[in-house]
């Protein structure tokens, strides 16, 4: 005995229009189906969030300093280091955007390098950016704050 026959039996006793009985049965069936799907189908797996250093690695603060980047010259912000776990770079508000190179074979310039905007702080985990030398270029003079963490 299904939902439709229950509605039809109720309809005969109460003198209800068969169309409304069918619509009511369809709504009840739809609600039950949605409820079953809601509770039975598992949620989609969540993608991991890249948030800087991995939780498995331990990091000790090694160095913090400021560096003058620009105008229109390339400097080395971080030297190559085999034991780094990550680096942080802060470009102040009011400063110029900075272009970085994470490869010693590439010299950043006005059109070459990864662009980092002013008024931002960037986490540069070793898992993504490595521990090689980081070179910087800015079109205008900018003082950046830099920190390096080692394992």
Provide the β-strand percentage band: 25-35%
Per DSSP E runs of 2 or more residues, the count of β-strands stands at: 8
Gyration radius, in Å = 31 Å
Order of helices and strands: HHEEEEEEHEE
Q: Architecture of the largest domain, CATH level 2?
A: Sandwich
Based on CA inertia axes, which overall geometry fits? Answer: elongated
Q: Separation of termini?
A: 69 Å
By helix and strand content, what is the structural category?
Answer: alpha+beta
What is the CATH T-level topology of the largest domain?
Jelly Rolls
SS field, number of helical segments:
3
Percent range of helical residues:
25-40%
Instruction: Give the CATH level 1 class of the largest domain.
Output: Mainly Beta
Contiguous uncertain segments of 5+ residues: none
Main sheet overview: 4 strands, antiparallel
Spatial strand sequence of the major β-sheet:
1-8-3-6
Domains (count): 2
Q: What is the arithmetic mean of pLDDT?
A: 80
Describe what this molecule looks like in 3D.
There is one protein chain. With 151 residues, the chain is of the alpha+beta class. It folds into two domains: 3-40, no CATH class; 60-150, Jelly Rolls (Sandwich), CATH 2.60.120.770. Helix content is 26%, strand content 34%. The protein contains three helices and eight strands, in the order ααββββββαββ. It has helices at residues 3-14, 18-40, 126-129; strands spanning 60-69, 73-78, 84-91, 98-101, 114-116, 120-125, 134-138, 142-150. Strands 1-8-3-6 form a four-stranded antiparallel beta sheet. Helix 1 (3-14) packs antiparallel against helix 2. The chain is elongated.
């Amino acid at each position: 005995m299904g939902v439709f026959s229950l509605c039809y039996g109720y309809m005969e006793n109460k003198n209800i229009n068969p169309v409304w009985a069918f619509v009511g049965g369809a709504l009840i069936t739809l609600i039950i189906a949605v409820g079953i799907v809601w509770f039975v189908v598992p949620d989609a797996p969540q993608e991991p969030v890249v948030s800087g250093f991995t939780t498995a690695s331990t990091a000790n603060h090694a160095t913090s300093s400021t560096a003058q980047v620009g105008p229109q010259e390339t400097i080395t912000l971080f030297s190559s280091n085999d034991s780094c776990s990550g680096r942080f770079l802060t470009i102040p508000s009011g400063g110029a955007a900075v272009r970085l190179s994470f490869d010693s074979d590439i010299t950043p310039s006005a059109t070459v390098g990864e662009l980092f905007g002013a008024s931002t702080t960037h986490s540069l985990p070793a898992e993504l950016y490595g521990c090689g030398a980081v070179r910087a270029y800015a079109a205008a003079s900018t003082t950046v704050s830099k920190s390096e963490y080692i394992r």
